[in-house]
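Hi U.,

Before I forget, here's the chain from the pilot set. I'm dumping it here mostly so it's searchable later in email.
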Amino acid sequence: MPAAVTILHLEDSPLDCELACARLRKAGISCDVTRVDTRAAFETALVKAAVDGRRFDLILADFSLPDFDGLEALGIAKARAPETPFLFLSGRMGEETAVSALKMGARDYVLKQRLAHLPAAVERAILEARTLAERRQAEENLRRLRQAIDDIRDYAIVTLDLGGRITSWNEGSRRLFGYTEEEALGHPLSLLFAPEERGAENIRGLLAGVAGKERCEVEWIHAARDGRRFFGSTVLTVARDATGAPAAYSVVVRDITDRRASEIALRDSEAKFRAIAESMPQLVWSAPPDGLPDYYNLHWFAYTGTRPEAMTGTAWMEVVHPDDRARTAALWTGAVRSGGSYEVEYRLRGAEGRYRWFLGRAVPLRDGDGRITRWFGTCTDIDDAVKARAAQADAREDLERQVAERTAELVAANRRLLGEVAERQRAQADLSALYAKTPVPLHSLDAEGRLLSVSDRWLEFMGYEGRGQVIGRNIADFMPPDVAREHREHRWPELLRLGAFQDMPYRLVKRSGEVADVLVSARIERDGRGGFLRTMAAVVDVSARLRAEAERERAEEALRHSQKMDALGQLTGGIAHDFNNLLTAISGNLDLLLSRLDTAERADLRDYAAHAKVGATRAAGLTQRLLAFARRQPLRPDATKPCVLVQGMEDLLRRTVGEQVSIATDCPPDVWAAWCDSNQLEIALLNLVVNARDAMPDGGRITITAGNAHLTQADVAGDVSGAAAGDYVVMTVADTGMGMPPDIIKRAFDPFFTTKPIGQGTGLGLSQVYGFVSQSHGLVRIDSEAGRGTAVRLYLPRCDGEEGAGLLPGAAAAPATNSAVDGAVDGTAGTVLLVEDEALVRMVAVQALEDAGLDVVEASDGTEALELLDGGLRADLVVTDVGLPGMNGRQLAEAVHERRPELGVLFMTGYAYDATLGTGILEPGCEVLQKPFETTALVARVTGMLAHTRGGGVAMRDSVPERRCE
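Structure:
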């Protein structure tokens, strides 16, 4: 039993758990109990024990539990801790349930009424579990030992019983002898030996010898199943029982056939060596690795007159000439130490005492691992050769003298040649320096188009530090893919065919990634036989020139576009002005007609007139769009908050686009105020949203954003609107629609241009946007791509400083609106001088004013009007068109005020306020009325001005400077 038994007690009653622990302690069993009472706590305790690397010695469980029963707990324990014994301790547990629990793996069960049986059951369960664990460990150890024996493939390991019969057979035995384990078991040991070795006496004697001295090693001839015979080294050992008596034998057999064959071959080799050595005419000797000779052939002894017993160790040095001994010993010692070859010339003393010259040589013999096993050497008589060499030395001196004389002659000739070579090299160096330092990028190519050389300027131009970075690379590696393909497929073959080309356009990619436009001139150099030597090429950078040409083309295109837009503006502005005059006459006559058809019996004619009035009103709207494009519409700029404006338009925009299109807005609170006409900005945004909706027939998303931007001079360069650099408010309308190709974008702002079907668009929406923004000193940008949607950005001047101070969004700073005097007193009498060159407009205005009870005097131009005033006409108000022939309306007003400063002037115009009256200050008592106008508006404005004048009040309009934020 362990010192302290760890128990996991699954028990919902703390008292029952304490009673069980007390009973175990009373029985002398020290226990460490962990109590759990639920399924979750039970599983958690088992998992924690596994994670901590420990396990409980015992699981003690009640059968009846709150959320599950003991059999379920037993199943959980067997899954998570199968080695831990499980014991039931329950107050009630039927016999059938107990049998089921034991079948599932429970060790035992004890009833709580018989708690005295618990200690014995616990000790028994723990002992059984430990015994089972030890048995499993022993079986595992035995399995591993058997596996280890089976894994030994080079040795046959066999066990025998006392009768000499085989009881085990490993994999090595099968490989060596060819018998399977089933075929070998039970057979006598003689199965392993050759037939001539299988005598019973031999086997019994072998086993008896092993039993007497514990171990026996012999070399016998063995036979395999297939008849193969081999030499084996066989080791037999005896295993004894507890009494010391033999219990079994083990046999280990190793195949030594190769080793025996090597030994026999070595003996044969030595015999052959001795036979060869004795037959050779040289003196032959041999030494072990230490270098001390232990063998000399018979010729050695015959020449030196020595005896074999005297030739041991270094005794051979005694026959070497005293003058040659030190040198010979040093060379031999060095060869032995280094393992290298040995060769020396020395003199050996013969038997008669005379010395002769010999050439001594020796080489080492090495084994498979490279270790030296022996040295073999020979001594060859070279005495005659040495004497002949001495004779040749004398002849050599004479030859050397002759050679020296000839050499001197050759040296002199060589000096002359070196001088010529040096001069040629200096010329080549000068040429190379000129090539390297030339200010034009130069390079040369081989026949495959690889770089052979480059000049310093080429390296500088391409951005490389050294030639090693580029030499050997193909010139196509420095070109964009399309240029490289054109070079390989067409231009390079053409150069090889023609031999040269001039100013061929190329593009080269510099090391930085910049692409340079260049002109390349190249020619092929050939040798005397016409063979290819190299291609020499010069590179001229034309990037700056091409950029300048492109910039000039862009500027010319911008100028052409600006001139086109100005021409269209003048055309549409003139047309709109004439239309305004016509519409004024038409609309005024319709007003007069409607006022005279205000009876029930003429209701049908009144309906016709009303419909005509609607058409005239729509035509007036069309002319307003034309004026907007021509930048001649009357604008009333003020400090406009984009976020407030967009927020106020959201409901209108959502109703306009319908349910299929969603609208999102992004207007940060820090967006600047813009200086523009808020009403025109609303119309522009509405036009853009409608265009975006029409570009998404299947639905989509429109995003309206506002932001701040600063445009530099480079940002506005080339823009035809003439916008200046500075701060701008950016309004963006983006959609997810079909987008526009570049050719459509170029024409998007042209009046009457539309991509919509006939009858679904006038082509003036974007024209109005362009004219409004340009007239507001801003600019418009379109970003679009077919299939990717469109974003239109309006850049409007920022209003900062005091220009917009105190102005509410949408408050006009331009002349008063037509409705500003709608509340004027009716019935004011007076005389009005009406100056209008257009007879139809003059007629309508006269009739409307006379119907209002006013006296009207007509004039067709400024000269006639001044003549009337000079003739004594006492007019109370002058109403004049601005665009009069000869003297215009502004000049007429100045002439009138010189004569009568108190006389008020009302200007009528079909153009914008800025376009007709300039950008200065209107004098007191002057107002502006925009054509086409309602006759009621004309009457209201005239009567209002007359009422203020006759009532002694100030003029309707004080001097109001034009307000603009730059």
